[in-house]
Structures are given as structure tokens and as C-alpha cells.
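Intended use. Records like the one below are meant for learning the mapping from a protein sequence to its folded structure. Do not use them to infer anything beyond what is encoded.
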Amino acid sequence: MTHMNSGETSMDIILTHERTDFDGLASMLGAYMLDQSMVPVLPRLLNRNVEAFLTLYGVELPFMDPRDLSGDPIESVCLVDTQSMTSIKGMVKDIKVKVIDHHQSKVDLPDDWEVTIRETGATATIFVQAIQERDIPLTPVQATLLLLGIYEDTGSLTYTRTTAEDIFAAGILLERGASLSIVTDYINHPLSMAQQRIYEDLRANAESLMIHGHSLILAQADATDLEEELSSLAHKLRDLLDPDALFLLLNTTGGVQIIARSTSDHIDVSEVLSTFEGGGGHPRAAAALVNGTPLPEIYKTLTALLPQYV
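Structure written out for the chain above:
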């Protein structure tokens, strides 16, 4: 918290993306550990496994609900694991923004933002390195959350985008008392009943395509009733069907959500989905939310596009 000239106080906050996963949450903790004058503010929507973790361990962590903010003007924001700004009541007009992320840099970021992008498997890794360099102490719960961030975004260090830095950071966290048994509990979180129903629909509708010798699976379902995140459905289907790439198209209240996963260097799903407005991500994991176009039409467009990108 900083003091403004007139004697009133202002705030510096840390934000991440909505539908926060463990890497987003862990990165907020990491940013806070490096500068404890900043307030890590939780998004309104959290993934179910993240919510379950916070219910049990949140009391030992520094996160604040946005509804509990003091109302002081917000002077600066540190955005972690995202490059998209969430607006919060109290932000000043010429707010200072700092971004720390591991996704590819967006082309249209404002010039006055301070942007740090490192190609690690998880954003949490960037913070663990800085915490280690400065020898900042961690409690076992803090170390466990940081390890959850790394494990979830690297598929427990098995995805090909995992770097030596991710593995090194995981080692540091184990030394600092992180619990692998807690990590296992939350990474392999079972699907809810509603997610299970959509998962069954996707399995039943899965269509296999063979393009230039690569197996691709496209599946569609209606998820307008689902309040929870959808990415765990993609993980489960990919593990079950083991294609070179998987594309899920889901009708949601906000539009058609496309989730893509690739297990092959020959298929960059972020390139495919960047052809849709607002789409992108990593070569192995990408997403897009398309508004105003019906799902069957998007399905047709995607099928026609794929041979150019495989």
C-alpha cells in the first residue's frame, strides 16, 4: 500500500485471469512473496480444484476477495499468468501495469505496460526462481501451492513444453517442504456430475479425422448449464483417446468455447485457434471463445482449416 500526496492511501494489487487454475493462483502468491506491499486479489471465478484447495488452506494464504477491498484508489497492477486486464472498482485512469507471464506475447499490448515473458512450462516457475535468488522463506503450504502451479501446467512435468527450469523449481519446492501427496489430490480432481455428463456427450460425439498421417479428434457438446471449467474435460479425453490433436467445441452461455490440445510438434494448436477472434495459447494447448457464430458453422470452418496447419 502506498501513500498519495494528499495523505490518502492507494493500493497496488496483483491479478490473474478468470477461471483461475493453479498456475494463476500460485503466480499471484509468487508475486506477493516478492513484494508484500501488494494485495493479491482473487478473480470472481476459480476452477473447482482451486476452490477446493482454498477452502482448506486459504486461511494460511494472503489472497483477498475483491468484495473486501478497502475502496482506496488502485495505482498499479501486476498481472500474472495472463496479459488481459480485469477491471476492478477503484482503478485510476493512468494505472501502471506490469505483466509476468509464460504465454506468447500478445501483439496489441499497450506501449506503457512493463512486460516480462519467459518461455517456461508454468508462470509459477519464474517466481520460484526469484524467491530462491532472494532466499525468501516459504511455509509448506506456500511451497505446495507453487508446486501445484508447476505440476498442473506441465502435466506433472511430462508435457513437452516443460523446461529444465520447471524441474529445477519443483526440486527447490520439495526441498522447501511442498507436499506431493496434496499435489496429487488436487491435480487429479474427479469430475463433477455436470462435467461427467458433458464428458460422456463429448465421447459419444467424438469424430476421428486422419490428416497428413496424423490422427485428430473433434468433439462437440452443449455446456450451457455448466458453471465450472472445461479444460479438465480436454485432459481426460486426450488421455483416454490419445490423438495427435484434440479439438472440443462447446456451446456455453458466453459463446462457443473451443479448447484444443496437441501431443505432436507437427500440430501447433495456438496457430489454428489464432484464426478465430481472441483465440491463441501455446503450441500444445490453446483456446478461443467465439461469439455470434453457431457451433455447426464453426465446426465446418475448423474442419476445413485443419489441413493447412497439420
